[in-house]
Amino acid sequence: MLKKYSLLIGLFAIGAFSYAQSSSKAKVLLDEVYAKATSYDNIYIDFKSSLENTEANIKQDTHGNVTLAGDRYLLDYLGAQQLNDGKKVYTIVPENEEVTIEDVTEDDNTVTPSKMLTFYRSGHNYQWDILQNVGGRKIQYVKLTPIDSNAEIKSILLGIDMQTKHIYKLIQTGENGTKTTLTVNSFKTNQPLSSTLFTFNEKKYEDKGYYIIRN
Fold first, then answer.
1. For residue 75, which of 21, 42, 82, 102 is within the disulfide window of CB 3.0 to 4.6 Å?
2. Residue numbers of the domain that contains 137
């Protein structure tokens, strides 16, 4: 009996040690990704987004792009544009001819464009996952599990290009079974940007007859 318990304890210790190694290795890689992402003056990303829920028979594919510079960003996605100038967030919807203006808020449970390359820094457990070969590129996946047991997100798989240390793919699985996949088609850094790129011109939209909503 003692031998059986000793064996079980030994196996548990090996499993715990292996998990700790996996977590430590994943964290080191994510730290490298963070250091690389924050070293650039700005980043432009063209991406494909896919949303799928088998039970609800939903499958939607779309494209978008975002320019990031520190906390500021300009996002074109789903026929709308979102601008963050560091203080306010402006959501421009041409189809409805309206603009919504809101204060910038920090919500740790929401992956906003300004946090899409750094959100994993807190609130998650890390685990080393599979390695894939994508067109000759080695993509290493890290599995992120929210520490908050009440989080609406079940897990996130972050695919990282091992040569560039850039994020290539993000696969988010919700507790409701919805899977959202974001794949990077183009990743450009330190591009020449207009000095007014992150400036909202309210008069321009008023002259167009847009309805301005302030929240």
1. 82
2. 2-77+109-199
